[in-house]
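B., you asked whether I could sanity-check this one before it goes into the benchmark set. Here's the sequence:
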Amino acid sequence: MKPEFCLLLVMAVTPIFAQQVSPERVNSNAISSGDRSSLPAEKIGPDDLLGVSVYDSPELSHPVRVDANGAIRLPMVKQPISVSGLYPAEIEVAISKALVDGNVLVAPLVSVSVLEYRSRPITVMGAVRNPIVFQADAPLTLLDAISRAGGLADNAGPVILLSRPASAAGESAKITQRIPVQSFLNLDEDFANLKLEAGDVIRVPVAGQVYVLGSVKRPGAFSVNDGAESSVMKALAVSGGLDEHPSHVAYIYRVEAGAAGRSEMPIELKKIIDRKAPDVALEADDILYIPTANGRRISSKILETSLAVSLGLGTALLYIYH
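And here's what the prediction gave me:
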């Protein structure tokens, strides 16, 4: 066979094969992998940044920011293209349709990548080591989010609160799920691997505190997770024990439901220490005040004032009331 004939045969057959290649196949292969963003494909929302590439149309190929209404605009396309809630592959179809309907291109080959997410925030706040807001650009669990925040702080309370936007649940108000910290720390499958969604807010409340003032070595505020687990003896232990010449009688100041101020509860401190009287349970927000044996007892109002000031400036001021 002559070389000139072979060349003519190849030229004649090539258009036939070109017509048999489907647009879908060209669309996925025509754009090199280097043009694709490394961000995983998730549903798109307002303020996300998309990379739009239209084959052989540089005037249509550029980054596009999704507007507040969840739409994008392209040159020569009169109407905005709604993309909110769509995946990148679905947006490719929407853009192709808009270009055809607008008589811009006959058979556009469109590629869409995600350059930046801003519509998928996950917020972790409260008693964590590094409160953080980040974008959920991949499937995430509660354990992932707490880990990004550096883990739970030492003063974390007994529960983790998960609030979810109403739109995600089809409700008119946010939904809050209470997750026991102990179950989370034990890597319970129902809690540690809880799937998060865009817009979730994770809040870790600070544990309740007991305030120990007066004749102790280290006055201050000490965290308690459960009032039944805290007591006068435990409070004395964490505050370094009694200072010199404490009074035999101490006082617990407690906020009672419906009461205007704190109620005062005297306790026989010496008898408790000598094990001649049962230990007394403390509740979150209690003030345990131990006067000196020969000193003037301070009123609960002055104690609360000093406590409020000391929490703003540190515990140094608590030593005033030895």
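One thing to flag: The chain has three domains: 24-116, 121-204, 208-321. Otherwise nothing jumped out at me.
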